[in-house]
Amino acid sequence: MDLAMKHCRQVAKLPKRPDRQRLPALPVPKLPGPSGLTESLLSNFSSKHVMNITWYLLPLAVAISLVWNTSRYESTSLILKRSGRMFIQILIFMAIILGVLVALSYNM
Amino acid sequence: MLDSRIRLKHAWLGGILAFLIPGAGHLYQGRYFKAAVYFCCILGLFLTGMALAEWQAVQAPPKKALASGKGGALLKYAAQSGVGLPVLFALVQRERLESPENARTTTLHSKMVTPFTGTISYLDESGNHTGKVTGTLSLAPISGQFGNQGITGEFTGKLDDQAITFALSDHVELGPPISARKERPLAAGLVREQNGRKEEIGHLYGMIPRAFWNWFEVPMDEEEDEDLHRRLGKFHELAMVFTWVAGLLNVLAIWDAVEGPAYGFGDETLPAGGKTPETA
Hints:
The structure holds two protein chains of two kinds.
Chain A: H1 2-13, H2 36-42, H3 57-72, H4 76-104
Helix pairs in contact in A: 2-4, 3-4
Chain B: H1 11-20, H2 24-28, H3 32-52, H4 71-80, H5 85-98, E1 112-124, E2 127-143, E3 149-159, E4 162-168, E5 173-174, E6 183-194, E7 197-209, H6 222-232, H7 234-259
């Protein structure tokens, strides 16, 4: 009985729930402008970060083309020649995909 | 058919070595350029991915992953496992984590001096004191009068820019030695000697650094995993891609060590109408 009374007293001392209307208004999120999606796609290339995530594509493409062609050929000169060609093909392919995405998102 | 100019020695041994350490199989076979390419590219990708994910990209899947609905973790690990030894170490770490010896500890094998960050709370003549502290802990094992083992020591640090030194009670408690977190929790009582008797006057709670081998590739729990995702964002996904690609690329390297290159030197003569790799 004593415990129950103590609990009731503790509950009574709890601060009242704040009035909802007095709560500060939540900040309104800034909606993207007319070309928001295009900007966000292109922002990958112009971020303020020291090392933008897009640049990681280059070592990845270099490693993939080198390892792939090393597993195909035995001649060092042929490996290097084919790797260089494959690296450029990867970059062109990725650039085309980026171009298509930018075009599709134009004015979105 | 394999070009007679390519010597694979014991191809199976080359394959095993290539699996364990990318490039090692080719080094054994005397194919030095290939060894260098595989070593630098595959391990380079893997280590870049690991560094991007704060060295937590590799997580051994839980035992009975499929039964517990964690097939995704199994697939991720399978892709990474092509890198060999650096990834297989995660299995060792999983065993160490789940070992019954990996529990909260109140004993030490030898003395330990370690940096400490945490909170302190104590009572002295001038009143209650509470705050964040940084400093150094000197811990040492101790045997109680009934033969029981414990940890004691001393804390030296700063509270509100004031130097403080406290003796610790004989019941210092440390968190488990193995965990994915880079810091190990510690709780200790603070004691003061008065009239020849030790009197407990407060508590110290905080973190000490965990040794690299005690957190590297240790499986994370869900909370730690979510915390890492929150901190790294899209870089976590990029890190995972790097480690997966590294593992899958080493499959090509292992194949090359066992079977030789797909085309050879590129100067082979093929039957009439066939294409040489150079023209393919």
